[in-house]
Amino acid sequence: MSVLDSKVPKGPLKTKWTDYKNHIDLVNPANKRNIDVIVVGTGLAGGSAAATLAELGYNVKTFCYQDSPRRAHSIAAQGGINAAKNYQGDGDSTYRLFYDTVKGGDYRSREANVYRLAEVSANIIDQCVAQGVPFARDYGGLLDNRSFGGVLVSRTFYAKGQTGQQLLLGAYSAMNRQIARGKITPFNRHEMLDVVKVNGKARGIIARNLVTGEIERHSAHAVVIASGGYGNVYFLSTNAMGSNATAAWKIHKKGAYFANPCYTQIHPTCIPRSGDYQSKLTLMSESLRNDGRIWVPKNMEDVMAIREGKKKPTDLSEDERDYYLERRYPAFGNLVPRDVASRAAKERCDAGYGVNATGEAVYLDFASAIQRYGVEQAKIHNIENASKDKIYELGAAIVKAKYGNLFQMYEKIVDQDPYKTPMMIYPAVHYTMGGVWVDYNLMTTVEGLYCIGEANFSDHGANRLGASALMQGLADGYFVLPYTIGDYLSHEIRTGKIATDTPEFDEAEKSVNDQINFFINNKGSHSVDYYHKKLGKIMWDKCGMSRNAEGLKEAMAEIKALREDFYKNVSVPGTATELNAELEKAGRVADFLELGELFAKDALAREESCGGHFREESVELDGEQEGEAKRNDVDFAFVSAWEYKGEPGDAVLHKEELEFNEIELKQRSYK
Amino acid sequence: MNLTLKIWRQSNAQAKGKMVDYKVTEISEHMSFLEMMDVLNEQLINKGEEPVAFDHDCREGICGMCSMFINGEAHGPDRGVTTCQLHMRMFKDGDTITIEPFRAKAFPVIKDLVVDRSSFDRIQHAGGYISVNTSGNTQDANAIPISKHAADEAMDAATCIGCGACVASCKNASAMLFVGAKVSQYALLPQGKVEAIDRVQNMVAQMDLEGFGNCTNTGACEVECPKGISLENIARMNREFLSANIKG
């Protein structure tokens, strides 16, 4: 028996959540007023949780490193949010969303959690509309949908290419209502630097005021971590510059197990990198794959001619192009899941067919969509014998209405007009499915310490489907955590205010101060970024889109050596008692330098290919699926949850066996 | 390209600031403006000097964290972009670039180019929401049809990223484009109508309390807004405010 108890309720899958809600203990309103909850992070998960908990009557403190909760990186999500509303009448249902999510995650997620997610998905849309989120509508005034990768129905709701922004502003507005009532106290420009445990329970945090440098103690009856993913371990990713794993890693070091760190999503449609100075990568929404066709030249001569500037992509005829996704996956074509699309791009580029100077770019082409829409519009407007230019004009207008802001963003960055020439794209690190291990209640292995949103590991298995991150963040925050945490807090009504002048707080504050003083006084020879970039290169080269045992062993050793060098030679200018961006970065990179090693260790231990984790040693050798990823359900149908033991390399593995009662495990086929 | 930068340095809110000259070399035209600032800071750190503090986060033009007044314009010379999306191809070799913080009484400087925009948050606390519980037991999302036109217009207002460029560009340091955008988003949707009177009155009162100036219809805010928020939103807010005062 594993030490991990997922606490999944008994009973049929379809009624588990309802039964659970009917039988949990509740806290009476008068008692809620005496209970404090800390929420770290104010994105979709943290913002929605904070607003809901405050609305229920708890006293909430929120923490974010940005100057306002509205700036959390959920804001950058473009494409949309899934919900099983079946407004399109195309056969969608709670079960189908559940099934697609488990299959898309390559059968490495917990059935009960995913079913609950699918179940509450429809409420999210109702809730957001009631809050004034301006989702896209059709001419009849009803909500519009689009389709996303890995599924065969249209269940994605969207607000132009800014769905994350609108949903986050919705959660932020719900927070504002509670801030105005005094039920949420926001601590902006603050960073959580440790969790405080008293008698085994999470009882508070140590935070740094990023403006004054002051170290503060905050106590609570429960602590919720909603600090997002760890994609910036790669240095270059689509995450915000400040996105970090510090809160998640600090709780890991205090007893929260860290699950499946090797499950990373490399998003197929990002703008390729252009030089060493690059600070981040920019995503182009997956929704573009609804209308864009992905290709590289068929012939190597054309590749060379394009790289040398002698040919343009538009010079190549249809016969000279390899629409490799349509070729390899006729059923799903350009709408295969993200992990499949990314590996296919890498495969073509590794074979030498990359279309830019770095050799790491493929085309995403809208010419056929513009043509198709143009012909359709000409018919709608009764224009007979429309000229080629007219058709182009009509079609381009439709594409502009759908993706205008994305096209503008591309043009500003790359300085090319994507209406006239295909976009260049390449995969980039985007999302981390792995994270802090949580049970069905979203509680970590530390009592009273919860983890929600991207920061936890729970719902996406080894690969996340498009438009499901927003769904999970809001489901956790609005509709799941407020119930589960209540069950825990019902046992805290007699606890009373938690004091911060205790040895536990003293000790946590001291260790935070020690680390800060170390950085300020070290006066080494290299900047923090110097180390972060080196770490990113190891991660991308050896723990990137494909991995092998030898590379992973090297990565572990190299990261360990880099970490040792960091602690000898890192240089942090300025003082600890002022706004000091370098000091903030130093703490975050120190944590990435540990997390990266555990990541490689986890990837090494998982000797199978599943979802975003592709082991070169585990591929299909023959048959229709030749060359595709090979999962190993006999030996690896478990969640890897790592226990911290002083050094990342010494972490101890605990397995949560995954049981599939509703869904038969199959090889994913998108052919 | 090689550039001269004149940058506002101010060690904290109380300190007196001044412009300081820096040189940067070998800047690629493909860099973003903030990547150029990264190069400068790496150079300063390696020389043992203190890097320039500036706000930034998503670096894709949506979080609204980055600011900077570049050559006299919020977010610099390009249109429809934030500073993080501004590319160095907008500048020429040998240029001198002046970089200052967003300046307004309601945006005090915290350090160098970092300003305190919490006044924007406080305006939102005053009424930037619809009072609906997050129970999930609201009516079905399709129960109230909303015309595509109204939904699109509300969306256009809602794209505001709260960066403060409107305030920094305005000779009166007025926040009316920002407040107008939020008031408009809700005024255009049926869900927002119930609380319309209180909302506009409370948000405008807070805006005045924070020390933002009034609007004199110059329109600089609309020109400099990275998201193209239209002046119509100010007109709509004025209409809402006037009618609220008559009714209320």
TrEMBL record, chain A:
One of its GO terms (cellular component) is plasma membrane. The keyword Magnesium does not apply. Its main location: membrane. Residues 532-670 form the Fumarate reductase/succinate dehydrogenase flavoprotein-like C-terminal domain. Its cofactor is FAD. Gene3D superfamilies: FAD/NAD(P)-binding domain, Fumarate reductase/succinate dehydrogenase flavoprotein-like, C-terminal domain, Succinate dehydrogenase/fumarate reductase flavoprotein, catalytic domain. Residues 36-470 form the FAD-dependent oxidoreductase 2 FAD-binding domain. The keyword Flavoprotein applies. It is found in: Cell membrane. This is succinate dehydrogenase. It comes from marine sediment metagenome.
Automatic annotation (TrEMBL), chain B:
GO terms for biological process: respiratory electron transport chain; tricarboxylic acid cycle. Pfam families: Fer2_3 (PF13085), Fer4_8 (PF13183). Residues 151-181 form the 4Fe-4S ferredoxin-type domain. PROSITE patterns: 2FE2S_FER_1, 4FE4S_FER_2. Keywords: 2Fe-2S, 4Fe-4S, Iron, Iron-sulfur, Metal-binding, Oxidoreductase. Its cofactor is [4Fe-4S] cluster; [2Fe-2S] cluster; [3Fe-4S] cluster. This is 4Fe-4S ferredoxin-type domain-containing protein. PANTHER family: SUCCINATE DEHYDROGENASE, SUCCINATE DEHYDROGENASE IRON-SULFUR PROTEIN. Belongs to the succinate dehydrogenase/fumarate reductase iron-sulfur protein family. One of its GO terms (molecular function) is 2 iron, 2 sulfur cluster binding. The keyword Iron applies. It comes from marine sediment metagenome.
